[in-house]
Write a structure and sequence with these properties.
The mean pLDDT is about 85. The chain folds into two domains: about 210 residues, HAD superfamily/HAD-like (Rossmann fold, 3-Layer(aba) Sandwich); about 190 residues, no CATH class. By secondary structure, it is of the alpha/beta class. The chain is elongated, with a radius of gyration of 26 Å. Strand 2, helix 6 and strand 3 form a beta-alpha-beta unit. A seven-stranded mixed β-sheet has the order 4-3-2-1-5-6-7, sandwiched between helices.
């Protein structure tokens, strides 16, 4: 039993099991050490990783073949490599809160050696660790004597010693090797997970803040307000709408160079879709995946997020098919009014419109007033009120995220049919 500190004589409320690679570590330990062995070996480990994630090889095959690529690797260098891997934020503080709530915390990794996990467990003050049992001969990792572990068997030993049951277990993981563990646990949390883990997780968390697991482990009344689901959702919405507001730039850029703006939007949509597909499969893609994870709502964790795609298409089509005086107010409304109405509605909205989950009276009123101001400043007075009403009605359409497409195109179409630019501004 690899305990960092002696087992306390106390009753624990539960056991929290944390995977390391891809969860606490923002990279894969084995991939990092193989990377230093040359490009050829690095490409081999990447290929093995792909084969594992698409279920063509087992985790045992991945580790056996992968560590052969790291033959004669220095153990001290392996520890240094592990220390250089970026961690998610607030790991130690999260474990401290779990300890306060009388949870026992174990780090269990199928792919990281015990001597590396020991350092990490001491660093973040976890209670226990279990990983690969690898012999070290004269400071060199012996890859021919690797003892693989079973996460299920390891957890059962801990439970027996703590006198707990599987109903007391919370597991956090990201890759296919955690599926059985997540299924047996009372709560299975997928943390930046791959596709199959999404299917078997009770809840999914995307991002870089480990505090976000706490609301699913500890009752809300025992958490400070800053650590509640509502607070995390609000922060994500602020970041999300900050990105949404960037759409304001598009009509002014298009006035200068319409074709260039279309190409930029098309490029962003394409790259975003690719990054979303890879994120859904459990692979980060440059900056886009990081942005998506920070802006993602909790209800959007089971599939690809199409909201930004529809917004990009809505702005692109509006610029492509309409005149500047028509697409300017339409794009400003979807960028500004839609953002403000969502924030105000989430923060202060209580009364729902027609029972719609994401539409509140105060949110729609905010949308109406801000749209009215934008239109008052950009179109003839006779069109301000009817165009505002059209935009507000489009915003109320309950189909998820479809308003991102319909608000700009629908508003621009109305203004176009009423001949806005034939009368001047």
């Amino acid at each position: 039993m690899n305990t960092v500190k002696s087992m306390k004589k106390q009753m624990y409320k539960g056991l929290v099991v944390l995977d390391v690679d891809g969860v606490l570590f923002k990279d894969i330990f084995l991939k990092r050490i193989v990377r230093s062995r040359g490009l050829k070996n690095y490409m081999k480990i990447l290929w093995l990783g792909i084969m594992y994630y698409i279920n063509k090889i087992t985790i045992n095959k991945l580790l056996e073949e992968g560590y052969k690529l790291a033959r004669d690797f220095n153990a001290k260098k392996a520890q240094v490599t592990a220390n250089k891997i970026r961690r998610v934020t607030n790991i130690k503080a999260t474990i401290e809160i779990l300890h306060q709530e009388e949870f026992y915390v174990s780090l269990i990794s199928a792919g990281i050696p015990n001597f590396v996990l020991k350092d990490l467990a001491e660093e973040i003050e976890a209670d226990h660790y279990a990983g690969l049992d690898i012999e070290i001969n004269e400071g060199i990792i012996d890859v021919d004597k690797i003892k693989l572990i079973s996460k299920i068997e390891t957890v059962e030993k801990i439970l027996q010693r703590l006198e707990l049951k599987w109903k007391d277990v919370v597991s956090v993981g990201d890759d296919p090797n955690n599926v059985e563990l997540l299924k047996k646990s009372r709560i299975g949390i997928g943390f930046n997970p791959c596709k199959i883990v999404r299917k078997y997780s009770d809840t999914i968390i995307e991002g870089n803040n480990f505090f976000e697991i706490l609301p699913y482990v500890i009752p809300p009344e025992r958490l400070p307000r800053k650590l509640t689901i509502q607070r995390f959702s609000w922060k994500r919405e602020l970041f999300r709408k900050g990105i949404h507001l960037l759409g304001c730039v598009c009509p002014f850029l298009a006035q200068s160079n319409k074709l260039l703006t279309i190409y930029i939007l098309l490029g962003i949509i394409t790259v975003y879709f690719l990054s979303e597909f890879l994120r859904y499969m459990g692979v980060s893609f440059l900056l886009f995946s990081h942005i998506t994870r920070r802006a993602q709502r909790h209800i959007e964790t089971r599939s690809i997020i199409i909201g930004p795609i529809l917004l990009g298409l809505g702005i692109m089509f509006t610029i492509l098919f309409f005149h500047y005086h028509t697409y300017l107010p339409a794009i400003l409304i979807v960028s500004i009014s839609d953002s403000f109405s969502a924030l105000i509605g989430i923060r202060f909205g209580k009364t729902r419109i027609f029972g719609l989950k994401n539409r509140t009276v105060i949110g729609s009123l905010t949308f109406f007033l801000s749209s009215f101001i934008i239109l008052f400043l950009t179109v003839p007075a006779r069109l301000v009120l009817p165009a505002t009403m059209i935009a507000t009605l489009l915003e109320l359409i309950p189909v998820y995220n479809l308003d991102n497409l319909l608000i700009p195109t629908g508003t621009a179409l109305f203004l176009h049919l009423r001949g806005i630019y034939s009368h001047g501004l």
